[in-house]
Amino acid sequence: MNYELSNLIIIATLLPFGGALLNGIFGKLISNRLSGIIASLTIGVSFVLFVIFYLYVVKNSKVPYVIEISNWLFLGKFQADISLLADRLSIIMSLMVTGVSALIHVYSIGYMEKEKGIKRYFSYLNLFVGFMLVLVMAENIVLMFVGWEGVGLCSYLLIGFWFSEEEKANAARKAFIVNRIGDLAFILGILLILSYFNTASFRLINDGAYKLPTTIAFFITILLFIGATGKSAQIPLYVWLPDAMVGPTPVSALIHAATMVTAGVYMITRLGNLFLMSEMTLAIIMLVGSFTALFSATIAITQNDIKKVLAYSTISQLGFMFSAAGAYAFSAAMFHLVTHAFFKAALFLLAGSVIHALSGEQDINRMGGLEKYLPHTSLMFWLASLTIAGIPPFSAFFSKDEILYKVFINENSVVPLAPKISYTMLIITSFLTALYISRLYFKVFTGDYKGSLKPHESPKVMLVPIYILTVLFAIFGPIGMGSGIGHILEIPARIFGKDLHLVNTFERLVGPSIASFGTISLDVSLEIFMIFISVIVAFAGWLLGRYLYCHQPSPVVEVINQKFYRVQNIIYRKYFVDEVYDFLIVKPYYYISRSLFELIDRVIIEFIIIGFIVKVTYITGYLLRFFQNGYLYKIICVGLIGLGILVYFMMGK
Amino acid sequence: MELHILSYLVFSPLLGLLILFFIPRDEKELIKNIAFISSIIPLGLSLLLLFMFDKTNSGFQFETLVKWISTLNINYHVGVDGISLFLILLTTLSVPIVILSSFKYITESEKFYYMMVLFLEIAMLGTFLALDLVLFFLFWEAMLIPMYFIIAIWGGDNKRYATFKFVIYTSIGSVLMLIGIFYVGNLAGSFSINDVYGTVFSIKEQLLLFGAFFLAFAIKVPIFPFHTWLPDAHVEAPTGGSVILAAILLKMGAYGVIRFVIPLFPNAVVLLAPLIFVLAVVGIIYAAMASYVQKDLKRLVAYSSVSHMGLIILGLFALSSVSISGAVYQMISHGLSTGSLFLIVGILYERRHTRLITEYGGIASAMPMFSVFFMIASLTSIAVPFTSGFVGEFMVLFGAYSSDFLKNVYEYSQIFVYVAASGMLFGAIYMLWAYQKVALGPNINLENQRLFDLSLREFIVLLPYSILMIVLGIHTEFVVSRIMPSVDRIIGIFYAGLR
Amino acid sequence: MTELLSNISSLVFLFVCAVSLLIIISFKRRESDGSFINTLAIISLVVAIVWEMSELISGKNEYMGHMITVNSFTALSSIILYIIGIITIVITDSFKGFLAEDKGDSSILILLSICGMQIMIISSEFILMLIGLEIASMSIFVLSSRNNRSRLAIEATIKYLVFSSIFFAISLLGIAIVYGFMLSIGVNSDMLSFHNLGFVGRTLNAGNLLLTSAYIFIISIILLKLGIIPFHMWVPDFYEGSPSVVSGFASTSIKVASVVVILNIFSKMFFMPLISDYHAAYKMLEVLTIITIIVSTVVALHQTNVKRLIAYSSIANAALIMLGLLSYLVASEQLRIVVKVNLVFFILVYSLMTLLAFGVFSRLEKEGGGNQLISSFNGLYFKNPFLALSLSVALFSLAGLPPTGGFFAKLFIFKSAIDSGLIVISVVAILMTIVSLYYYLNFVIVMFIKEPSTNERYSGSTLFNFTIGIIVFAILLAGILPNKLIGVFELLLK
User: Fold this and answer.
1) Would you say the ipTM is above 0.90?
2) Are B424 and A71 an interchain contact pair (Cβ–Cβ within 8 Å)?
3) Per-residue pLDDT reduced to its tens digit, A303-316
4) Which of A572, A588, A612 is the endpoint of a domain?
């Protein structure tokens, strides 16, 4: 590979950091708009560079490139360097990251216009992209951890962007600390990997994975997975994500929907060979993923905050990806990751647009009828909703279908029932997804407007990025077309005597970079059957939502609200998970700390041990002092008696 | 090679000390300036030393050996290797910072204060460079007096208790070490490290001597449960004192462990390592938990020191090249981050005269630049990647985890590493909590709203540490390539002595 | 006779000076304010030092009929005594606080006392030694009781006087007993030299009850002067009651003399496998040392009076001296010289720091001496930083922290003790130094606690400040370059 092109990647990865520095240090000197333009430009240029690199290098080659920047950590027999790994997986992910980021940066110029500290905002946002690129492009797992923690840090900074509100500062800290729990597991996993493989490089780890004993593989992968549950908001560490919605909406779109939260899936894909070594872990991943999907989808139905609904939806969609990864379908997971990035980013930006229009209102009960006021937003929201509901021919239909199929046909020898259970949960989730998104759409955009302020459509700088995303999520689907759909489409083609050779382009694209589990025999008729099921489910969900919530909430809703008040309340309160965590972990931690500190430092060490030594010395002195009042007779007596004692002892010998 | 650069370095603060001595105490500005300028000289010399340092040489460089008290075989013997090199640099960097940071904090008896700081610098440099056990002990003890004065004269309300505790704790350790030193010197025939390293001790002797030496170092480090002097000393000391205490004095214990305990008493190390692991790990967790419940910001930082030093001790006793190098790296990093944090607390205290966390909140809106520095120091403290803290901590954890020594010592000893790693989590809990309570949230308190951001001087004070924390987080080779050969040499001596 | 005179010429000179000054003072008493006499006394001491220096360099080592031994060691000790004398006189001259109508008589008494102690130093025979001791003590009694306005001073003097007289008598009794034994075994000499007395014990190697107690009787007077338990109880009272200058002088000079005497006794009496139960005697001393160091340190914790505090500290230091002496006793031949050097170093540094402390005390002393509480030093630093820092140096040195001479002084004592195998006692002593840190630091810190400033500024004469400065400098120098001093001592004492 020629030298200039490898420089491209380095520049592309470092550009966002440069932007961050520029905005961070010289922010005072430039105008708000310029600051936004600089930030967007750096990401945009970075995106273009990735495109060039993709077109000229990656597309024509299946070999990964390693680009060394600098050496970094010396770990005895090997090093963990600052090097980049450019293969199809990382470049596609980077394209997605920089592309979506660039759009969101542009959107932010409009959205954050009136905020104080916008340079700080753009500086953080750039920094985030930089760390995300480090995470994606990292050649070794330690460097990935840098990106991993780095994005967590930026997420912390951005959630707490409006730090002067206690709630936001709390949410930021919660996000960081919950992530740290995951990171702790991740780093322990890294330690295990490093000491077993004696290397940090992904390629060498994947190459050597087959030699790993199953138990070790299980420990390693389960630790990494716990790490992933932290970053990608899966059970049990998902609790930070809904709270994180207090941050600026573009941040939610970028970090908490499109990019950072998918890092867990990306990591598992990156280390696919390693994960394939432990079927146990894969089963756990699948079950956790699908359960998370179901669990959070139920919560999403009951939420009234527009961003919270989307947050739980994100968790749910991430669950899909994890289920796919657990079913060895890394390519399907990645595909859903990409499509999800597009439509979920779009949804968040649209939500931002709505919030912007309503000057900060987020409660969907106070919205309604926005169709009239926000025609562009409404249209795109509708498209995005259809997409997430899984309605063909939008992209999520393709990606979700692929996942459902791959999960269903998966055979796990350790937990044989897992795929079927998982599938069941996922199909229910599909239904719920369509339901909650249609509820959201119809409640917000149809019916009568319940607010007092007059909504206004967003400026172009905000709408254009969403348009671009809309185009992407609308047409991106066929790239990852599964074989079943391919067959359906081929039927009419055959009639005209043509052979389309429709294949999964996406899988072919990333295939060389990710692990595959031999060849799975595909049952085309089964797949076609399942496509029908999922389409039916999706439509059913959507229509049910439409029936219940279009224009006016239907009377059935009232009935349900009354009859299932308790259940609904439990779900609405998110199954009291936060409260349980608070009661079981957060509070006890404080009280245990407090009492340990009081007990050990104050009582045992200070009072008992040191106090004892000091008192003994002191009291001894006090007692001895009584001999020291200087009456002459006493002095002489002590002297003489002492002399007597000496003589006595000398003679006693 | 007769280059006495080390001797010049050690005694270079003497110049400023003497000049200050002859300046009338009322010339306050002059005194400050001279103190600052004269503290630049050692910095320059140490940079020169860094420049001349030969990184291919793992042994001691620029050695100077002069007969001193010949009746007792005590020599003036100094030398530098990769381990002490960076501790020296940390010292010479910290002193100008401390002096600059004290310009406004110290408002009476300035002359004496700066003299004491310079005096302290001599003692600190001497401790790191001494290669003669008695000389080492001399410098070690010599730190007590200036530190005593710094806390006793310019300290807080409860300074009396704090100084006593500080001096008596430290002395308890060091007198036992003194006996150990005499014993070692007796057997080795001299106190020079070259003779001492070759000496073989019986197992029983090793255990006793280990106890004598290690107690001194454990108190200085401090290792749980010998740590209770530290929070008191930190809280009562003036900012400059706390910075020196945190950045440098605590490192001396760990330095002593590498320099003396590990190479001299290998068998005792093997026997007692499990116990030390337990103490280190308990210290990491316990101190992190204790930090979380502190009401006083300075005390919180002090407990965080205890927690971090536990990790350093774990790294040292894991006895792998990576873990010890990582521990040294972490020593530097901890010096930078905790030093910074104490400067930050000091800056707050100068403005508000309170250190209670509840008194603050939301000051990031009043002091944005200040908060950035606070953030950087906190992040380094909790080992976020691309800060020096991460490098050190990761090297320690990995080095310990993959250490053959650790595996041989005790079957399940890798559990220690797992528990130690959780310090990262607990660290984040208290540090971010503190950051939030101080810098974030609504700024309600009227007095906090009136706070002004960093002055140029304060900015300059905070800048070097912060830059280094980030640079050392990314560019590690420069440091590690100099530390590691010397560490390998120490490990070599350790294994050579093992029976 | 001339030979003898030339060997002790400085002693003779000093004595002549003292007598001459006495004569001068009796004529000029009315006009003089004392400075004149003091100056003359100082000059004579300086001359004596120079004189003794020449002795030192000539390196004589002579015995004159078993009665007097003059060698470089005695010369060195004498010089230390002279230095103590000079410092004391300077302080006396600057502060007539303790006696307004002092016309220089104190310096004459000091000179006489020094003469007495020098006699102790050079004697190698008991009678001479005791005479010297009496001369020295008498002068000190007079010095301490001259302040007839202070009830405490008189009381202190009487206590000391009576107590030491009793033990003087007991000591004489011991000598008489041993002399009796000496005659009985037909030693061909009527000299009560240390050597002869030791010879008795060697010959009658049975555990003779009477003889054993006699030895203890003899040595008790020296232990009393040093302040070893159980003969220590006069020390705090005496220090408290006497003017600071006198306390300083008494506590330092008498230690110098006693150390030399004990070393002489040890080397001449005990070294040959000693009295029958040498081991028991040695053990006895060891036990006494341990008890002394523990009790004095622990009791000192409770002292609120600075002079009592320093008194207990001086007892503890006496125990350290005993530790050095004990290690001298058990050390091997080549180590013995090192121990001796270390002891001299310790004594010198101890004298300097104690004098420094008492010098500062005397500055703060109200007229008539009296009680000085630690609290009366509150905020001294803000009133007079020079004094506060000097006193801090003295206290840090007493506590044994570098870079003061006290650090090395203690270090050397411990080193020689450990080298000689006295591990247990060293460990106890070292541990007790930590406890002692507490009260030294407690004292130091009060000087730095800010007090609402009073008007007292404690201004003093230039000479005084200069002397104090010199002592501080010397203590620091001894802490930084002890090798120079040690080197000189070693050269001299070989």
Assistant:
1) no
2) no
3) 888 889 999 999 99
4) A572
